[in-house]
From TrEMBL:
UniProt organism field: Rhodothermus profundi
Parts of the chain that traverse the membrane: none
InterPro entries: SAM-dependent_MTases_sf, TPR-like_helical_dom_sf, TPR_rpt
UniProt GO molecular function: transferase activity
SUPFAM superfamilies, per the entry: S-adenosyl-L-methionine-dependent methyltransferases, TPR-like, UDP-Glycosyltransferase/glycogen phosphorylase
Name of the protein this chain belongs to: Glycosyltransferase involved in cell wall bisynthesis
A Pfam family that the UniProt record links to this protein: Glyco_trans_1_4
Length: 723
């Protein structure tokens, strides 16, 4: 690299560290104008775009850097970080698989592998994601034997939701979904409560559970497809597993081929995927000219072969169209795809529809479902389309003949053309095959039989495992409920009558903490709560002269929240501070939440959280202040996060022993957990939980031990309430 370009790059990196992202980006783009394939400038530009909220451009830069230099570790990890930040779980996995061979082995790389298995797309019911351990209700169709079944799932819940719902008709079911990070206490709770625990996927969650937790129930693992091509099965403690379920016989065959020792010792069963037939409307169709492709476009899907098939088809009849419900996952294939469409003159014959949510409606006018994949497990896209009466045309991947009729399969382009041109088209036959072989009711019956069988086996064995002191222990209250989690959250449900005023006690003793809770710092806690969420940060601007200083030190809370949130908009009244913040690329509106109408920009989106960080203690009438916020924002925001200085903090006790009070001279109130909850309740909110967090600053070992033993002595109260 030329010295002048190297200097520009260094200048840009210095600006980036200072938080001046737009100015830093200008330097990186200037380098790229001279050297478009400079991987260092591409990586730096990607980081700047990410900080400015331009994900697509950020991903494009990281992808380009990796195409130029597949072993570029920073671009590799940065790309995965951004994809996970925006809940693009499958893209993150594809990225890891695609580039990982060129990336040197390291603890960081292994950590990313573990984290990928725990990250999850937020594409499923909020209550299940928000409440691991939720009980799905009394069985409505109980049999002679009713069991307790827990489902544990980390990174991907799509394939398990229907099973949980259907099995809850027969059994007591609890669902433990972990959309972000795994709470091992809750996984152990599942093992303690259930007769049978079902782990969806043979992933890192199962690996950790099999080594860390105490087995107190029969355990099932369902392995789908990708796991058989990974090292994950080798890392599982298989003594933890009572039954291994496969979705297709050829996946079982591959498992036995790649992991023969494990396969010999673990009991195995094949339960094919099931389709809810009632969800897909059947209609008789004719051969027609509309072909459907559903899913991501990546190397596994064999897109180059797909285009060649379509080209040969169109040569015979220009009326054929391929409709694609999906998006590209690999830049290399996207370039190739677009290039070949132009070169083969297929612009009018390949129609990209993007990601389609309502797939049933989208399939309505289609005549064929096409799959050219080099490998599949038990593909739902084919099953669902065939349920609608659409003719499947499937490339003969390994094992395809074990799950589909031979007449659905093709080995080469000539056989593909023959399948499309043929008058042999029978919608009812396609539907009947799914009903006979992939009916969800048969899948649920097989799983129900498995649950009953395992419960009998496990109960008859009279196993009473002894706890391993090196493994995780739960803490329980007198009703045998878990009371301790990572942050020491306290649920205020028992305070409800007192907070609402329907009960009174002049000496009410409120439990506000439990001992031995690891210290969590306020900023880190808030970042963990708002990660990947849409948030309003009220009163965020800070004093203008301090913003740049705090940015350099990494101590400005708004910048930290903006870095992890899906969308973060600040709201403040300090015009000077807002101007400074905007110079560094942060979105802060000059707006008085009490007196000004709600800006259209805020009305255009529904917000997960409104944050009031260290604000309420400055307000003369906090109840009235919060009431006005509740009235104006109740339809726009789900929850309020409040942080305030803790009246009970250790520093106050130390000062009192010196006959002193140490206080911010602008503060009007001190709060305890109960008094804060009372104020928030009076304002119309429903308090859900609170915990204690520590502020920044040095801490000696004795202070650390004190604050771990007595969390109520920490600096801050963090409270969450529903609007």
């Amino acid at each position: 690299m030329r010295d002048d370009l190297k200097n520009q790059l260094l200048e840009g990196e210095e600006l980036f560290v200072r938080g001046a992202y737009p100015q830093a980006l200008q330097r990186f783009e200037s380098v790229l104008e001279q050297e478009p394939d400079n991987p260092y400038a591409l990586n730096d530009a990607g980081l700047a775009y990410a900080e400015l909220g331009q994900l697509e451009r950020a991903v494009a830069c990281f992808e380009r850097a990796l195409q130029v230099d597949p072993g570029h570790e920073n671009a590799f990890f940065n790309l995965i970080d951004q994809l996970l930040r925006y809940n693009q779980f499958e893209l993150a996995v594809e990225t890891f698989v695609r580039y990982q061979e060129a990336i040197p082995d390291s603890e960081q790389k292994r950590k990313y592998e573990r984290d990928l298995a725990r990250e999850v797309r937020r594409q499923w019911e909020a209550t299940l994601n928000a409440q691991p351990g939720i009980y799905l209700g009394e069985p409505t169709e109980p049999g002679e034997q009713v069991c307790k079944v827990a489902f544990v799932c980390g990174p991907h819940t799509t394939f398990i939701v229907d099973i949980e719902k259907q099995l809850a008709r027969r059994h007591h079911v609890r669902v433990y979904h972990f959309p972000k990070s795994v709470n091992w206490l809750q996984v152990q709770e599942a093992l303690d409560w259930a007769d049978v625990v079902w782990f969806e996927w043979c992933d890192s969650l199962l690996v950790e559970a099999s080594h860390r937790l105490t087995k107190r129930a029969a355990v099932v693992c369902r392995l789908h497809s990708y796991e058989v091509f990974s090292e994950l099965p080798q890392r599982v403690n298989w003594e933890f597993i009572d039954r291994l379920v496969f979705v297709a016989p050829h996946i079982k065959q591959l498992f036995e081929q790649y992991f023969p020792r494990i396969a010999y010792h673990v009991e195995k069963i094949v339960i094919p995927n099931g389709v809810d037939i009632n969800r897909f409307q059947f209609k008789n169709r004719n051969p027609g000219f509309n072909l459907a492709y559903v899913g991501y476009i990546n190397h596994k899907k064999n897109p180059s072969f797909l285009l060649q098939c379509i080209y040969r088809l169109v040569q015979r009849d220009k009326r054929y169209r391929l409709y694609v419900a999906g998006i590209h996952q690999e830049r290399r294939f996207e370039v190739y795809w677009n290039h070949m469409i132009r070169e083969l003159d297929l612009q009018d014959h390949v129609i990209m529809e993007g990601w389609v949510e309502d797939i049933e409606t989208w399939l309505d006018d289609k005549n064929f479902i096409i799959s050219t994949s080099v490998h599949e497990g038990c593909p739902y896209s084919v099953l669902e389309a065939a349920s609608c009466g659409i003719k499947p045309v499937i490339h003969y991947f390994f094992g395809a003949d074990k799950i589909f009729p031979r007449e659905w399969l093709f080995r080469n382009i000539d056989e593909f053309l023959e399948a499309i041109y043929s008058d042999n088209y029978d919608s009812k036959k396609y539907r009947d095959w799914i009903v006979e072989n992939f009916n969800q009711s048969d899948q649920i019956k097989a799983i129900d039989n498995l649950v009953l069988s395992l419960n009998r086996e496990y109960a008859s064995s009279n196993i009473k495992p002894v706890r391993d002191n090196n493994k995780m222990e739960n803490k329980y209250d007198n009703k045998n409920r878990v009371i301790l989690d990572k942050y020491g959250w306290i649920n205020v449900a028992k305070w409800k009558d007192y907070l609402l005023g329907s009960k009174f006690d002049n000496g009410f003793r409120a439990i506000i903490s439990h001992p031995n809770v690891a210290i969590i710092y306020r900023n880190e806690l808030l970042k963990n709560i708002v990660k990947d969420r849409a948030i309003l940060d009220v009163g965020c601007a800070d004093h203008a002269p301090l913003i740049e200083q705090k940015l350099r030190q990494g101590g400005w809370l708004h910048a930290e929240l903006a870095r992890v949130a899906r969308r973060c908009v600040g709201v403040d009244i300090d015009e000077e501070a807002i101007a400074v913040a905007r110079q560094f690329g942060y979105t802060i509106l000059q707006h008085n939440v009490l007196t000004d109408p709600v800006p259209e920009e805020l009305q255009a989106e529904h917000w997960d959280y409104m944050i009031l960080g260290e604000v309420l203690e400055h307000i003369g009438n906090p109840v009235q202040f919060l009431q006005q916020i509740h009235e104006k924002y109740a339809e726009l925001v789900d929850r309020l996060i409040l942080t305030v200085p803790n009246a009970l903090k250790a520093l106050n006790y130390q000062a009192a022993q010196q006959h002193q009070e140490i206080v911010n001279s602008d503060h009007r109130f001190w709060f305890t957990p109960y008094t804060l909850s009372k104020v928030v309740t009076d304002a119309g909110f429903q308090v859900e939980r609170f915990c204690f967090a520590q502020g920044l600053g040095p801490m000696n070992d004795s202070t650390k031990r004190l604050l771990e033993q007595y969390p109520a002595l920490r600096d801050h109260i963090v409270l969450i309430a529903a609007f």
